[in-house]
Write a structure and sequence with these properties.
Blueprint (H helix, E strand, L loop, with lengths): L1 H11 L16 H16 L6 E2 L5 E5 L9 E6 L14 E3 L7 E2 L7 E2 L15 E3 L8 H19 L7 E6 L13 H4 L3 E8 L3 E6 L1 E10 L15 H11 L2 H4 L10 E9 L3 E10 L3 H20 L4 E10 L11 H12 L5 E5 L4 H7 L6 E7 L7 E3 H18 L5
Parallel strand pairs: 3-8, 3-9, 9-16, 10-15
Antiparallel strand pairs: 1-2, 2-8, 4-7, 5-6, 7-17, 10-16, 11-13, 11-14, 12-13, 16-17
């Protein structure tokens, strides 16, 4: 576990925060920096074709030792969430965690409380890694990156029979662009696994289906001293638009389990024009059209009440529920179950109230369930990772390699 911990702490110090306000891919230079480092480390581990491509994606192939076995792929993403700073991350290792709340020393207002993170209660005696509280940690998804790198290291040195294993580190997953440059044909595997899940022993074989709605409200701007009867303030109309959204029954904070939601997550603009971005989420893809229709009706109502205003709702498809596509290769999930049992874990299935690169890859024809890798409270300064759970993910990957090594193409 020392090598795993050292890798993880080194990776999180590289700022790979994704940006959703630029068109470049990757959206931030740190992703290329980390990718180049990983490609070099893979070469040093003896993976001869490791390469950091111009688009930031890293690919490599650990050659198989069993000729008849099919190729599989392991994936993790290099970027971290734009919702909290990833600059100057200072990982803090809490060895032999004694239980109780964890006060983060860089900002003592940031406290990981057991009451809010009940999984902490069962991690007493484990090694917990946090940031200092001024940034996120970046376990999402550098825990996955570190687990894959450690598993490659172990397989390169061990005598575990296995087929070819494709290694892929993608960019900009956190802003919905993780598969923008990925092609299943380029990966060349019969099944894949994203290492991008919380806790331990989880197999996530179902995700939300997702669309993104951009609401553009056009008003009329004029000097406020001359505004009487003329100005149409797009900011005020944006407030009314948000007020009319059904948050009591259709918001992330008021729904759970298999309930979908509409989630306004950014707003920008001025008097003349304001834009609201809204996430549409449901486990049932047809419901996304109903959610979009709700937004359009609100816009039409505002236009009727304020005839000089215009409200446009543009919807962009993002990804679809992976469960619809995993049946193409049943071994993807079946062998994940077997690998977890062989690694000493009790596998549990979970439906993700979100998405992964695997959602899109499964839809594109490469069945890709998601596996847990010991991350918690991601997308926030209260993020933490459990080293022992990360090591469990390494064991699962090694067992997956062994089990797929017994399969036929």
């Amino acid at each position: 576990m020392d090598a795993l911990l050292e890798r993880f702490c080194r990776y999180v110090k590289i700022d790979t925060r994704a940006r959703d306000d630029v068109k470049d891919y990757p959206s931030s230079p740190g992703q290329k920096e980390l990718g180049a480092l990983l490609a070099q480390e893979l070469l040093e581990l003896g993976v001869a074709d490791a390469r950091a491509h111009g688009d930031g994606i890293v690919t490599a192939t650990l050659p198989g030792t069993v000729r008849s076995a099919p190729a599989i792929a392991w994936l993790a993403h290099l970027d971290t969430s734009p919702e909290a700073s990833g600059t100057d991350v200072k990982p803090i290792v809490h060895a032999n965690y004694r239980g109780g709340d964890i006060v983060l020393p860089g900002d003592k207002q940031q406290v990981i409380r057991v009451a809010e993170s009940p999984e902490l209660a069962r991690l007493a005696g484990k090694t917990i890694v946090t940031s200092d509280g001024t940034t996120l940690l970046g376990a999402d998804d550098k825990a996955g990156v570190a687990a894959i790198m450690t598993a490659v290291d172990e397989l390169a040195r061990a005598r575990v029979p296995h087929g070819p294993i494709r290694i892929v580190f993608s960019c900009d997953e956190e802003v919905g662009r993780g598969c923008e440059k990925l092609d299943p044909e380029r990966i060349g595997a019969v099944a894949a696994y994203t290492l991008d899940g919380e806790d331990e022993g989880l197999i996530e074989n179902e995700t939300f289906s997702a669309d993104l709605a951009t609401v553009t409200i056009t008003g009329y701007n004029i000097h406020p001293g001359l505004a009487t009867g003329k100005m149409v303030n797009a900011i005020r109309l944006a407030g009314q638009f948000l007020e009319r959204m059904p948050w009591q029954t259709k918001a992330p904070e008021t729904t759970a389990d298999r309930q979908g939601f509409l989630h306004p997550y950014t707003i920008e603009g001025g008097v003349g024009e304001a834009k609201i971005k809204v996430l549409l989420r449901s486990f049932e893809a047809p419901e996304l059209k109903q959610q979009a229709a709700v937004l359009k009706r609100i816009g039409q109502t505002l236009e009727a009440e304020f005839p000089r205003a215009k409200v446009a709702v543009a919807v962009k498809r993002q990804y679809r529920n992976m469960l619809e596509h995993l049946g193409k290769e049943p071994r993807a999930v079946d062998l994940a179950v077997a690998a977890m049992k062989a690694a000493g874990l009790a596998p549990t299935f979970k439906s993700i109230r979100g998405g992964t690169d695997g959602s899109r890859l499964s839809e594109m024809g490469l069945p890709t369930p998601n596996l847990s890798v010991g991350m918690h409270n991601f997308h926030s300064k209260l993020e933490f990772a459990c080293l022992e759970q990360m090591q469990s993910a390494v064991r699962v990957l090694v067992e997956l390699a062994r089990l797929w090594g017994k399969q036929k193409r």
